[in-house]
Design brief:
The chain is mainly beta. The chain contains 2 helices and 9 strands. The protein binds zinc ion. Zinc ion binds next to loops.
């Protein structure tokens, strides 16, 4: 029986991700394929929706609008913070991601966009916010998640989540 992609399946796939400009910004094809647990928000919603019902061997091209990927870009979401807000031993570079706590204590991701002597500009937008994403995907394998994977909400093993401590 052919396994089709649905909630509770671990999916192994190869993908190339391009922007509207045609620029390829990410690809699994030079290394390990990606593994994700379907229905667990491991990947952007628009791609997960498009993969439902697919099976090993299927190749699809998926265009995902920003609202089903990393959301719209908020141009007001820049903040300038003192360099001292970051650990002194960290070499800050544009593109680095940090977690900051908001007033409710929730951890929110922020990205460094500019690094100055005294001040650092951070952006609350994901670097791909506002972008339409084009995925070219080949499904390699579909299998049932183990009980442990279902409990953790992500796949284990090569290409999956590692718990090496
Ligand atoms: Zn785990």
């Amino acid at each position: 029986m052919t396994e089709t992609i649905q909630d509770g399946k671990v999916v192994t796939l190869h993908y190339t991700l391009k922007l509207d400009s045609g620029q390829a910004i990410d690809s699994s094809r030079s290394g390990e394929p990606l593994k994700y647990l379907h229905g667990a928000n491991n990947i952007v919603p628009g791609l997960e929706e498009a993969l439902a019902g697919k099976a090993a061997g299927d190749k699809i091209d998926v265009t995902v609008p920003a609202d089903k990927a990393y959301g719209p870009r908020n141009p007001q979401a820049h903040q300038v913070v003192p360099r001292s807000a970051f650990p002194p031993d960290v070499e800050l570079e544009p593109g680095m991601q940090f977690g900051v706590r908001d007033e409710q204590g929730r951890v929110m991701p922020v990205w460094v966009t500019q690094v100055g002597e005294e001040q650092v500009t951070i952006d609350l937008n994901h670097p791909l916010a506002g972008e339409t994403l084009h995925f070219d995907v080949e499904v390699m394998e579909v299998r049932d998640a183990t009980a442990e994977e279902s409990a953790h909400g992500h796949p284990h093993g090569p290409g999956g989540h590692s718990h090496d401590e």
